[in-house]
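REVIEWER CHECKLIST
Item 1: Sequence provided? yes
Item 2: Single chain? yes
Item 3: Sequence as submitted:
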Amino acid sequence: MTAGNKSLSSYTLFIFFLPPFPIPSYFRSVSARLLQQGKYKTSFTVSDFNTILSDIKKKHYKSVYFLMGDEPYFIDIISNHLEKDILDETEREFNLSILYGQDVNLQAIISEAKGFPMIGERKVVIVKEAQNVKGLIEKEDVDEEGGSEKKEKQKDKKHPLVAYLEHPQPSTILVFCCKYKTVDKRTSFAKALLKHAALFHSEKIRDYKIQEWITHYMKDKGFNVGPKALMMLAEYLGTDLSKIVNETDKLMISLKPGAEITPEIIQANIGISKEYNSFELNDAFGKRDVLKANRIINYFGANDKDHPMVVTMSSLYNYFQKLLIIHFLADKSKEAASRAIGVHPFIVTEYMNAARGYSVGKLKQIFAYLHEYDLKSKGVDSGSATHGELMKELTFKILH
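Item 4: Structure as written out by the authors:
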């Protein structure tokens, strides 16, 4: 069961084995880091996303760009700018080479990079799916303490690309798009990249940062999004930035700049029901509205493809986790609660009211239920029960 790329089981263990008191300070520090990082930053290594784009705009190019990490969206943005902004249309016909990792080896890439532009001053070589280039990401060449014999062997195993990094072709801009993999920072290759290239590490946006990311993205485009609509988008679209951008761009095409995105607009353009969605289900649990909760769960069960159990369980875990955090806040003001659980101040009162309806003991019991039904959803002691039937059982246990 995934929740921001982590299993529900691991989350449950976190709740049970960590004492309650560190939780508030942890989430306050998360909020502080989020404010410090800025709207588009994740945890970048050396080269920052905004800095790279700014340098490209100023025509301050690096000879080599090594773009790596689990979030493909930022890698694609940088790669697209390097592909389209450096060369004009005519130059791209002659001086742009697009290679694919599964089709080339390192020597072929280096050979292509050493070539001169046919016209103009620059040549651009982009290696897409670079994670598939054999030998590009070394695992053995770790620069760590050891005997002289070990160090000599490491020197002999110099990465094939290091020599090019040290003496690149001045007229070539070489770009590696290495998605879902990273280089070991202890290797000599990584150190050469740090010294001679633009090394960019794109990490996944954490689930608790997604709402703020969506807000800033839409504001940059000239649109506002209301708190309820924002939560609907975050719950439905998850942490896939490319999916978020595609779907929100569809919304904005039909709207005038400055308009506010509402649940009704989302329902009409994306297809998220304003009545049957995870946000409304959480609201029903928070108000202990048995009728509404069961109505939504029945709808989810009848439309399992659009509302898979794994997504619903993830949403429930995140919701009840927020209620538990509120219980252990030293400062129980709306402002402090909003920062701690990462929701808009406009709706934090709903969470605070919901927390009053669930004791700490009941919340721990709910996390145990979530763990139990996570296992059942995977076939452990579930018999022939469908996901819809399992969710009905879980709903009954939570509300009674």
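Item 5: Key structural point noted by reviewer: The CA atoms of residues 39 and 125 lie 30 Å apart.
Item 6: Recommendation: ____
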